[in-house]
């Protein structure tokens, strides 16, 4: 077994003969001295204080392993051949990788953390808490915002690479001129070849918004009969908001950082309406907002990175004549608990 062959396996790039070799190695020799030395050499090169880029690469690898575990568990239940990667990982953890795997299990915990559901030919990932970065089988990297989910095939075998988004996601699409990439949402589809863009498709709202960072995208609408209509082509630096009910299109060009800063853990406002801010903070802090009608036109400018919910709300009370109160979680009749509610009103004179 060589390190290069193991990497080919993790990348899904093995020939049938190579896959058979890796399978035998995993099942028969995972506790051999050769394996310990191979893993330990990688462990020695791991630096806990690496740059954010290295941490992101590690997170992508952990996500890929996690996805493969779910796929293989599903294959086992359906009677398909199963390679016991979990057995191998358990043995590896006993050697040197316990700290890394502990991080993995914490970050991937299905409750109350993120959730990955495997279907026959597709995977569905929900970022129930925190931002999550996924690498799809074609090399496309997706960053999901709080409370967002994406459904995608295990492999992109058709004429197009199609995913379904609910919520907000930032896409760095791997270029493939022969296989366009399409992000489907409730009201609008975003079609690209290879580019970077952001899509906001809150299922509770009547609009979809797209922000293009680089490359080119085409916004399309598909009616109930399957007829496709091009809404607009976008150029870098544009933000387009499409009203799914009326068909109206709003286009903004210029400062797009406020629409994509969330992927870096930054909450940015630039003359942003209070209702739009509330929508962002609902996902970020897992709360609900109730805003009085007489303050819905208030706008704010600010940038927040690690601030708590109350710190942001206090800033807003200093900028405009509002006050707020937070109602804690309540026990519901079905045994679940409600989200905390933030009530924002105009400050009394």
Taking all residues together, what is the mean pLDDT?
77
User: Any idea how many domains?
Assistant: 3
Shape: globular
Number of helices: 8
The topology string of helices and strands comes to HHHHHEEEEEEEEEEEEEEHEHEEHEE
List the uncertain runs.
42-55, 75-112
Task: Give the tally of β-strands.
Answer: 19
* CATH topology call of the largest domain: Jelly Rolls
- Structural class of the secondary elements? alpha+beta
Terminal CA distance reads: 76 Å
Strand residues, percent: 25-35%
Tell me about the largest β-sheet.
Answer: 14 strands, mixed
Give the second-level CATH assignment, the architecture of the largest domain. Sandwich
The top level CATH class name of the largest domain: Mainly Beta
- Helix coverage percent: 25-40%
Compute the CA-based radius of gyration: 23 Å
Give descriptors for this structure.
349 residues, 8 helices, 3-stranded mixed sheet, 3 domains, Phage tail protein beta-alpha-beta fold, single chain, Jelly Rolls
How is this structure best described in words?
The chain is built from 8 helices and 19 strands. It has helices at 3-10, 16-29, 33-45, 52-77, 85-107, 257-260, 274-285, 309-319; strands at residues 115-118, 122-127, 132-135, 141-144, 148-153, 161-172, 181-184, 189-192, 196-201, 207-214, 217-222, 228-234, 238-243, 249-253, 267-273, 288-291, 299-304, 322-327, 341-346. The strands form 3 sheets. Strands 1, 2, 3, 4, 5, 6, 7, 8, 9, 10, 11, 12, 13 and 14 form a 14-stranded mixed β-sheet that branches. It has a 3-stranded mixed β-sheet with strand order 16-19-18, with helices on one face. A two-stranded antiparallel sheet has the order 15-17. Helix 3 runs parallel beside helix 5 (85-107). It is globular, with a radius of gyration of 23 Å. Residues 42-55 and 75-112 have low confidence and may be disordered.
């Amino acid at each position: 077994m060589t390190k290069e062959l193991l990497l080919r396996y993790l990348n899904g790039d093995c020939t049938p003969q190579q896959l058979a070799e890796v399978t035998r190695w995993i099942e028969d020799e995972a506790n051999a001295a050769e394996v310990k030395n191979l893993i330990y050499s990688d462990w020695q090169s791991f630096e806990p204080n690496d740059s954010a880029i290295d941490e992101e690469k590690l997170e992508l690898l952990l996500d890929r392993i996690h996805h493969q575990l779910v796929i293989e568990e599903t294959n086992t239940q359906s009677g398909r051949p199963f390679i016991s990667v979990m057995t191998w990982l358990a043995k590896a953890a006993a050697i040197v990788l316990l700290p890394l795997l502990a991080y993995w299990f914490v970050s991937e915990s299905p409750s109350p953390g993120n959730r990955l559901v495997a279907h026959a030919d597709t995977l569905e990932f929900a970022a129930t808490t925190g931002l999550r970065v996924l690498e799809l089988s074609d090399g496309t990297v997706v960053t999901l915002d709080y409370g967002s989910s994406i459904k995608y095939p295990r492999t992109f075998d058709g004429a197009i690479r199609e995913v379904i988004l609910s919520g907000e996601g930032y896409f760095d699409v791997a270029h493939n001129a022969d296989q366009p990439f399409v992000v489907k949402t409730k009201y609008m589809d975003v079609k690209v070849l290879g580019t970077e863009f952001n899509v906001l498709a809150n299922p509770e709202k009547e609009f979809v918004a797209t922000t293009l960072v680089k490359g080119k995208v085409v916004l399309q609408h598909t009616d109930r009969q399957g007829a496709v209509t091009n809404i607009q082509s976008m150029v870098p630096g544009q933000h387009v908001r499409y009203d799914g009910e009326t068909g109206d299109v709003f286009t903004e060009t210029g400062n797009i950082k406020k629409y994509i800063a969330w992927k870096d853990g930054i909450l940015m406002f630039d003359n942003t309406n209070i209702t739009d801010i509330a929508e962002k903070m609902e996902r970020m802090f897992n709360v609900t907002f109730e805003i009085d009608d007489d303050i819905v036109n208030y706008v704010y400018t600010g940038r927040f990175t690690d601030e708590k919910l109350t710190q942001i709300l206090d800033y807003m009370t200093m900028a405009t004549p509002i006050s707020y109160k937070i109602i804690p979680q309540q026990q519901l009749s079905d045994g679940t608990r409600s989200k905390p509610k933030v009530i924002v009103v105009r400050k009394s004179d």
